[in-house]
Design goal:
seven-stranded mixed β-sheet; three-stranded antiparallel β-sheet; binds pyridoxal-5'-phosphate
Length: 406
C-alpha cells in the first residue's frame, strides 16, 4: 500500500497570490491578449535578457512560429536530437520541412556534437545542408550551444533553441554567464509554461529573440498574419478599421488570464529553481553511495553550467546490457509505483515513433540514445516536494537496491 500521498514526477505550485492575480485579471476589461500579456513579455525579457519575448498559446505554437518566421518550408532539412518531446520535431513537419534525428550523449541526454557534425556534413555533401538545428536543454541542463552555433554557422544553418526545460539555468563561456535562452548562440529560443515546466500558466509558451525582424514577424504570425501598419498597406487606406493580411498566420494568442498567472509565477522562479537544486543535491548525495551507485547513475552535469532541473533523471543498470538495464528499469518503475511514487520515462526516442520511423534516414541506429533510453527514469522533482518526500523516494530506491542484492 502507498504510504502517504502520491508523488508525481512533476507538478505546479500555485499559491494564493497566483489566484489573486488571476481573479484581478478576471475583474478587469481584458481577457485575451492585452496589458497583462505585454507586462509578462516585459518580465520575460528582463529575466532572460533578450530584446524581445512573444508569448503564445503553447510551447508547441512557439516552435511552429519560430520555424515559420525563419522561413522553413518544403525541401528544408532540420537536425533534431532524438531524445526530446515530439513537438521539437513536429514544428518542422508543420512547415513542410524534413527532420533528421541526431544521437545524444548517453551520459547527459544532450545532442551529441560528433553525430551532429557528421550528419551536417553528410547533408552538405548531398547538396542539401541543414537549414536549422534545434538543440534541446534536456532535463534543464544547457546544451553545448557555442559548439552547436559554430557547426550551424559552418553549414549556414539557423538555430532554434528549445529551452522548454531550462528556464532559470545558466551557462558560462569565456567568463560570461548567459541565462539559458538569451539567444547569444541562437536565432531564437522557445519556452513552455505547461504545468510540469518551471512556471505554470495552464498552457502557454513564448519565443524569445534579439532580432527585431524575427520579433515583428512572430507577432504578426501569432495573429493570422495581420498587421495595421499604414506604411505597409498595399491598398489606399480607406479608414481606421483597415488591416491587411500579408502572410498565412494563426490564432496562437495567449490570454491575459494566463499571463496574469505567468507574471505572478515568474516572480517566484528564483525560489522554485533554488528548491529544485536542493532536491537534486539530496538525490545526488544519496546515489553517490557505493551500494546504490551499482544500480543507479544520475545524468552527468557538464562543467560551466548551472542546471535548473526540470527533470531529475537516473540511468538504471547503466553498465549492464541493454536488455538487463531495461528489465531493471521496469522493475524499479513498478516498485516505486506500488509505493505511490510515480516516475516517468523521458523520452521514447522520437525516431522510433511510427510517424517518423518509416523515413529512410531515421532507420539508422542511434546507439547512445538507445542505451540511454533503455535505462532512463525520471524521479519526482518539483519545488513543492518537502524533505520528507525526497527521503521517501530515496528510501524506496534503497529498498529496491537491497532486494536486487539479496
Ligand atoms: C514541453 C515541451 C515542449 C512543448 O511545450 P507545450 O507547451 O507542451 O506545447 C517542447 N519541447 C520540449 C522539449 C518540451 O519538453
Amino acid at each position: 500500500m502507498p504510504s502517504g500521498d502520491i508523488l508525481p514526477y512533476g507538478r505546479q505550485w500555485i499559491d494564493d497570490d497566483d489566484i489573486a492575480a488571476v481573479v484581478e485579471c478576471l475583474r478587469g476589461d481584458w481577457l485575451t491578449q492585452g496589458p497583462a500579456t505585454e507586462a509578462f513579455e516585459r518580465d520575460l525579457t528582463q529575466t532572460i535578457k533578450t530584446d524581445h519575448a512573444v508569448a503564445v498559446s503553447s510551447g508547441t505554437a512557439a516552435l511552429h512560429l519560430a520555424a515559420l518566421s525563419l522561413g522553413i518550408g518544403p525541401g528544408d532539412v532540420a537536425l533534431v536530437p532524438t531524445i526530446t518531446f515530439v513537438a521539437t520535431a513536429n514544428c518542422i513537419r508543420y512547415c513542410g520541412g524534413e527532420v533528421e534525428f541526431v544521437d545524444v550523449d548517453a551520459d547527459t541526454g544532450l545532442i551529441d556534437l560528433t553525430d551532429l557534425e557528421r550528419k551536417s556534413q553528410a547533408l552538405a555533401d548531398q547538396g542539401r545542408p541543414p537549414r536549422v538545428i534545434l538543440p534541446v536543454d534536456f532535463a534543464g541542463q544547457p546544451a553545448p550551444l557555442p559548439e552547436i552555433r559554430a557547426i550551424a554557422n559552418r553549414h549556414g544553418a539557423a538555430v532554434i533553441h528549445d529551452a522548454a526545460h531550462s528556464l532559470g539555468a545558466t551557462y558560462t563561456v569565456d567568463g560570461n554567464t548567459h541565462p539559458s535562452a538569451d539567444c547569444a548562440h541562437a536565432d531564437c529560443a522557445i519556452l513552455s509554461f505547461h504545468p510540469v515546466k518551471h512556471i505554470a500558466l495552464g498552457e502557454g509558451g513564448a519565443i524569445v529573440t534579439n532580432s527585431n525582424t524575427l520579433a515583428a514577424k512572430l507577432r504578426e504570425l501569432r495573429t493570422h498574419g495581420i498587421h495595421r501598419d499604414p506604411a505597409r498597406f498595399s491598398h489606399c487606406n480607406p479608414g481606421p478599421w483597415h488591416y491587411e493580411q500579408d502572410s498565412l498566420g494563426y490564432n496562437y494568442r495567449i490570454t491575459d488570464i494566463q499571463c496574469a498567472l505567468g507574471g505572478s509565477q515568474l516572480r517566484k522562479l528564483d525560489s522554485f529553481i533554488a528548491r529544485r537544486r536542493e532536491i537534486a543535491a539530496q538525490y545526488d548525495a544519496a546515489f553517490a553511495d557505493e551500494r546504490l551507485s551499482k544500480f543507479i547513475a544520475p545524468l552527468v552535469t557538464r562543467p560551466n553550467v548551472d542546471h535548473s532541473y526540470h527533470l531529475y533523471v537516473v540511468r538504471v543498470g547503466k553498465d549492464r546490457s541493454l536488455i538487463e538495464s531495461a528489465e531493471l528499469r521496469r522493475h524499479l518503475y513498478d516498485h516505486l509505483r506500488e509505493q505511490g511514487i510515480h516516475s516517468q520515462v523521458h523520452y521514447i526516442p522520437v525516431h522510433t515513433q511510427p510517424y517518423y520511423a518509416s523515413t529512410k534516414s531515421n532507420q539508422a541506429r542511434f546507439p547512445q540514445s538507445e542505451a540511454y533510453y533503455d535505462g532512463c527514469l525520471s524521479l519526482p522533482m518539483y519545488p513543492k516536494m518537502n524533505d520528507g518526500d525526497v527521503s521517501r523516494v530515496i528510501d524506496s530506491v534503497s529498498h529496491w537496491v537491497d532486494e536486487q542484492m539479496s
